[in-house]
Amino acid sequence: MATLLRSAVLNPEAYRTVRDAAADAPAKAPSFSSLAARLDSLQGKTIYLVDTGFGGSGKFLDQVQAWFAERMPSVKTVRRRKTGNIFRDDTKDLWAEIKENGQAAILGVAG
Amino acid sequence: MPNLRFTFVKSPVWGKTAEQLQHDVIQGVDPVTGKPVMQEIVDELTTPLSPEDSITRTIPQSAGPDRFGPDDAESLQRIFMEKRMTDYLPIVLPTEERVEAMLKGTSRKPDEVAGHMSPTPGVYENWSYTVRQIAVNAVMAGADPQYFPVILAIAAAGTEAISSSDNSFANAVVINGPIRDQIGLNYDIGALGPFSHANATIGRSYTLLSINGGNCGKVGETYMGVIGNPMNYANIIIAENEKLSPWQPFSVRHGHKPEESVVSVFQGWGLVSAKNSKYAVWSRDMNFAQELKNIANDQDQLFGIVAVLSPAVADYVKSEGYDSVEKLTDFLYQSQDESTPHFRSKAQINILVTGSSNNLYWDYGGMFLARSVSVDEWR
To answer: Would you place residue B1 in the very low, low, confident or very high pLDDT band (cuts 50, 70, 90)?
Structure first.
């Protein structure tokens, strides 16, 4: 049996993080925090319902709000619409507002 | 954030009445876990974190080994396919010799970071790629070194060829300027089809780079297209027929000089033949501009419209009084009556010319201009 030709080939994959084109060193690896501590209960709490702007989000959150009003009336729900592009961060101070005034947030929807 | 708490709901949520949303979605179950949606949401806000949830972490930077093998060709083909680094067609194995040959197609340094890409910007982390990594993918696609500046320019645009969206989007690359003839791009019969080595392999390079350089197309992780899109194989490569077009090239209308070579990347739902539309009726008294307008006004507004006219159709439109694309765009943008125009702006209407003059066909689709990049900077 003839010997099959063997060769080494290069890996086509890229760096899994953005590197600074102007610098020689790789950019700092992205890091993230742990999840926030959970609540003991939602009773009496303020929950922000954040509309991401994706199709159907608004009406979906209307129904989430209606569910809380009927099933957990002690929960105060606050509706907000995230600013900016659907897939990007809020461009104003929504997260600061939620941190100041709320105990939890539900973001919806993703598609 | 790997342990982010989320709930799937019965999709889609758009287009449903309040009663349907309340009954089918809110009071329904998570289709993945089977748990009641609202109970699951309440649980996610109140169930204590596990030790795993509580640690901070960094995203690993390693892309794995810098090479595979040595091994025989069949085994290497299987490695690439099993690692989801291909389009499931055989590749040209990227040996060091072939990659070095590809790198001779540019004066840029191999280790220069040429761009970055994500399966959907802002949703997934960016991956960045060097000139060498782009060369590896170009070799895999079967491209020639002389095509490399075009491939680099497309890579520099950083627009993913395979979006993660469940929409099953497609991409087009419009190529203008002298590079078209220099590397043998086809803009005659079969301009959008698999009839030129340059068109085919440039398009395939873009797909492979998006998979390996942008982390795109990993089904279930970074790709959720409901039906998928066959245009993702090699994208829609549109070298304009600047010789036969009665108008200025697309790149010139957007501020570039005729002697500049430019790629312009479009994203959207792809292109279909205008003959799909009930408005594309051939008659003794053709009015192509009105046919274009009828089809455009029937088009979804989100991405606007790209119309790819054969030179014969473009000549017809010009003879109807539209001696510039600007005049045609004005006509297409104006509403048919006194109402608000169909599209948000004239920038949503893009006219291209390619193909042959042997008949009166043209294509259209909902696509928008993402970015234009100079090819000459990557020579």
So the answer is: low
Residues B235 and B306 reside in one and the same domain: no
Compute the average pLDDT of residues B150-169: 96
Nearest alpha carbon to residue B203 among B213, B193, B212: B193
Higher pLDDT residue, B318 or A35? B318
Range of the domain at B13: 1-57
φ/ψ region of B18 (left if φ > 0, alpha if ψ in -120 to 50, else beta) reads alpha
Domain-wise residue ranges, chain A: 46-108
Enumerate residues 161 to 220 of chain B having a beta carbon within 8 A of any beta carbon in chain A.
165-166, 208, 212-215
Q: Based on the domain organization, do B144 and B238 belong to the same domain?
A: yes
| Residue where a domain stops, chosen among B196, B228, B243 | B243
**Can you read off the two tokens belonging to residue A14?**
């890229």
Query: For residue B167, how many other CB atoms are within 10 A of its CB?
Result: 16
- Report the predicted TM-score, pTM, of the whole model to 2 decimal places: 0.84
Q: Flag whether the ipTM exceeds 0.90.
A: no
Residue finishing a domain among B12, B28, B57: B57
Q: Is residue B104 assigned to a domain? A: yes
B76 to chain A: which residues are within 8 Å by CB? 7, 9
Q: Least CA distance to B14: which residue of chain A?
A: A56
* pLDDT averaged over every residue in chain B: 94
Under the banding of pLDDT at 50, 70 and 90, the label for residue B2 is low
Position B132 in a domain: yes
Inspect the interface and report whether the beta carbons of A9 and B93 lie closer than 8 Å.
yes
Instruction: Please check whether residues B45 and B169 belong to one and the same domain.
Output: no
Q: Which of B137, B117, B134 is nearest to B125 (CA)?
A: B117
